[in-house]
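User: Predict the structure for this protein chain, please.
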Amino acid sequence: MKRPNSILTLSLVFGSLLIAGLACGGSSTTTTNNTAAPANNSTATSSTPAPSAPKSIAGNYTTTGSNPDGGGQYKADLVITPRDDVYQFSWKSGTSSYDGVGVMTDARVAVAYTDGANGKGCGVVLYKIGSDGAMDGKIGYWGVNSMETEKATRTKGSGSDLDGVYDIVGKNPEGKEYKGKLTVIQSGEGYTFDWEAGNAFSGFGIKAGNYVAVGFGGKQCAFVGYDVEADGTLNGRWGNQVTRKLGTEVAKKK
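Assistant: Here is the predicted structure, written as C-alpha cells:
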C-alpha cells in the first residue's frame, strides 16, 4: 500500500467518527496492539439494504486495493481480532504495518487506523441514519475494548442530506453521559465532522447508503468503511483528513 505518512487513519469514518483511539489489546478491558488498515476500501455506496453477513468478521484476510488519484495498487495481509465490543485491525504490506480499531453495525464496518504497531490516539464512529435523519453511532477508541454510543439529532433548520447541525447525546466507555453539538459539512468525496462536547475535535468520513463511517484523532489517523458481503468479503473505501480523496480495498478471507 502506498500512503504518505502525513495522511494516516474508521476511521468510517467511523473524529469519531469521532473517533479517538482504537481498541486493540486482548480481551481485557484495555486493548493493546493493532495494525492500522492500509489505505484501502471500496465500501458500497448504494442505498440498498445491507446484505446479511457473518456475525463475526474475525480472521485472516488477503487484501488488494488502489490508492487515490492513480497512486497505484497494493496488496496486504490483514488480521482482524475481536476485542470485546470492538475489533482490532492489523495490516502488513511489505515492510509497512498499520494498526487500528473497528466497530460493526449490521453488515457495515468502520475502522480508524494509523501506521506503525498501534493506533494510539485514533478513533472511529459508525453512524446508522434513521428515516428521520437522526444518526445512531457506535464509537471505538484505540486501546479501549468498550465502545461509546452516541445519538445525533438534526437541529431544526439545518441543511439537507448529511450537512447540518445536530444535537448529540451519548455515553462514553466508562458509562458517563455527555451532550454537545455536531456540525457536518460535505468536503470532496466525503464529509467533515466537528464535535463540541466539552472538548472540540474533528473527523472526516464517508456515507454509504444509510451508514456513515468517520475517523478522528488527528491528521495521522485514516479511516475505512467496509460493506460485509454474505461470503465474508469486505468491500471498502478509505481516506483521511488530508487528501479528501478516496482509495478502495477488497479483503478476502484466507
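The domain at 5-153+204-253 is CATH 2.40.128.120 (Lipocalin).
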